[in-house]
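Researcher: For the record, we're logging two predictions in this thread. I'll number them. Prediction 1 follows.
Model: Prediction 1, sequence and structure:
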Amino acid sequence: MKMFELMKSVDAEVLFKASHFQESDIHKVVASDLMSDVLMMDAEKPLLITSLATDQSLRTAHVVGALGVLIVNGKALPSSMKKLAEELDMTLARTRMPKFEASV
């Protein structure tokens, strides 16, 4: 599924679109609030779905080669997250959906 289609399907507010936003294909998602678990996974170019609204979730996603981060539960994000997403050229979005619904 294309990134822009996925964001539309979960009614996400896209806070930053990476340069590859339109052509990014999402084949796997990783849903976790434990960044140590994310670091252990073996998936190519996933989307990270988490309720952890911190810079650490973006940094972890960057380390594992994720195409973007989707923050769930409508959490407010610190302004530093958007700035970091721009620096890393990583899509950052949020949705009001709970993690389970967004993942399915």
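Researcher: Logged. Prediction 2.
Model: Prediction 2, sequence and structure:
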Amino acid sequence: MGYKVYEAYKGFILDYNDKELIKFMTDEVSKFLKSKKALKLIIDPYIPNVSRDTDANIVEGIDNRWVDEYLKSLGYQYNEDGAQVKWVYCLDIDGKDDKEVFNGFKNNTRNYINKTINKFKLNVRTLTKEQLSEFKQITSDTCDRRSFADKSLKYYENMYDCFGDKVTFKICELNCDMYIEVLEEEIKEYTRKVEELSDSSSNKKKKEEMRKNIENNKKKIEETKKLKEEKGSVLPLSAAMFMLYGDEIVYLFSGSYAEYMSFCGQYRLQWEIIKYAAENGYKRYNFYGIQDVFNPQGKDYGVYEFKKGFGGYVEELLGSFILDI
């Protein structure tokens, strides 16, 4: 009937401690939107609701729950179907160098990252606009596998054009030849140690373990050679899109090939951009959306667990609100 819905993504941007200001903004925007034949307005303030720890437990700190009640007193209704994320996972890096940040990760996460650097020798490459089809291939594969709706290649290209140096697309790759070389060097080292150890009973278990490692490495070499023959020398593992804006970097979209998960490409991508954030004065790294926070059996709880490995905290945003105009 000619009416429109207006939405202020992550707005209004103002001081929510100032009730008079919130009321003034609401009244004046309402007047303006009536002249624009607005049916309703949706806002989604970019402020936390209440402070939480890494396990989403409420902790001492920020408490903006009163804002919810105040917005409702002005005529807003809470919107259960808000399009923007309400739960995000963040990492505070303000004033920390990359070593301090790295030491705050969980042991498993640190081990995975070290493996990607020292054993897998993974490479992280920044994509040009002309190379965004490589990013799109990975996200399409991931979205098909997980039943998500992917963005179009045109969307990613538009983001590249619109945001310039405030957006970056990165891809993580395995060089098969370099990986095979590492495995062969390990075999030499294990062989040398086996030969050097005496045949005493105390060394028997050590020798058996090293021989197992040798056989495992030989198996991995054959698997990698087969991959190289089928897919080429350099294998794309994972890709991610990051927004660099204000005092934070936001991890927005990503994907990984399921068959290469064991190479931990996403761990390496995360570490590269977190390290960059720490080295370039950003105050926090935002892993962005998490779901199934309170449901360990939920299909997206694993994503939350992955992000928790980096030692941050859950941020519950205020949420979405509708104002009938």
